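Subject: design request, 313 residues
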């Protein structure tokens, strides 16, 4: 059995051109992942005030807090167990968690239902988004990681933008619930079906890359695969200055995103803007985010990541 595994690994070829079919399939899958979270960008904060009478902004933001905490833990789980269990099972499980989300939001009799829906959405986003990133990086290898990440983020955030615009339009014409959330059943269903029947496991590509590394190189000696999980966690979040600063930049970026998501629609609605215009503004931010990834992802492979992060901050 061991000989067969080695043989199959040796037959694997890294690179975007060789694996373009699976790569672009994963781009499409991540577009559905982004569309799921885009469903909430325009409408859900407005539901809190209009249908549940919530006045406290802290209570309203509870649905983003629950989403963010769970998504962070799901990201950790996806990275930890994708090497053990495989990428595809985690991707499928993430989609199964996303299936009930539109149903819960549509029929929610209390705000707690929407908070719970966002717990499931956080699991869906953490597992599916992270896993599609990992799988694309597996396929392309070390030379095109920035490009792979850029295309992944482009598809995801452009889908966030389009879904945010669409829900604003639907809410303006058909009310806040249920019509704006009907597309969620399509997004989750197609994402699950594609992941089950068409996405292929990519662990062998990671194993192939590991075989190709020079055992005497500094990269190989410091490979995270040789470190225990707790040491990796401390290294990436605290001990290593470069990794700590990157993690800190990511945290600040997500804090900004959460504020825009949760408060901007309420602020605009209270200022008298129509739902359709709110949808346009809510869509502009992730659209620019996604489109710029086409440039920054590829350039980061040539110029490096550090100064792009600094310029962005």
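Subject: RE: design request

Done. Sequence follows.
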């Amino acid at each position: 059995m061991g000989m067969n595994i080695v043989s199959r690994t040796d037959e694997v070829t890294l690179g975007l051109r060789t694996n373009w079919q699976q790569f672009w399939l994963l781009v499409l899958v991540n577009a559905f992942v982004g569309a799921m979270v885009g469903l909430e960008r325009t409408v859900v904060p407005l539901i809190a005030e209009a249908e549940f009478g919530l006045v406290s902004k802290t209570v309203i933001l509870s649905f983003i807090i629950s989403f963010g905490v769970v998504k962070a833990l799901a990201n950790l789980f996806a990275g930890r167990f994708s090497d053990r269990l495989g990428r595809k099972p985690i991707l499928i499980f993430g989609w199964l968690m996303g299936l009930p989300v539109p149903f819960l939001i549509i029929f929610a009799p209390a705000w707690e239902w929407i908070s719970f829906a966002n717990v499931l959405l956080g699991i869906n986003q953490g597992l599916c988004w992270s896993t599609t990133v990992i799988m694309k990086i597996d396929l392309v290898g070390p030379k095109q990681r920035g490009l792979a990440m850029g295309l992944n983020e482009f598809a995801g955030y452009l889908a966030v933008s389009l879904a945010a615009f669409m829900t604003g339009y639907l809410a303006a014409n058909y009310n806040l619930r249920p019509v704006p959330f009907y597309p969620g059943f399509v997004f989750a269903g197609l994402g699950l079906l594609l992941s089950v029947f068409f996405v292929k496991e990519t662990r062998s590509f990671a194993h192939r890359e590991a075989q190709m590394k020079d055992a005497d190189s500094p990269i190989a000696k410091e490979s995270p695969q040789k470190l225990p999980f707790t040491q990796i966690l401390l290294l990436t979040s605290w001990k290593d200055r470069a990794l700590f600063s990157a993690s800190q930049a990511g945290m600040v970026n997500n804090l900004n995103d959460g504020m825009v998501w949760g408060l901007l629609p309420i602020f605009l609605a209270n200022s008298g803007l129509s739902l359709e215009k709110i949808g346009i503004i809510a869509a502009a931010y992730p659209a620019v985010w996604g489109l710029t990834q086409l440039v920054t992802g590829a350039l980061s492979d040539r110029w490096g990541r550090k100064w792009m992060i600094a310029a962005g901050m």
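The domain at 15-206+227-312 is CATH 1.20.1250.20 (Growth Hormone; Chain: A;).
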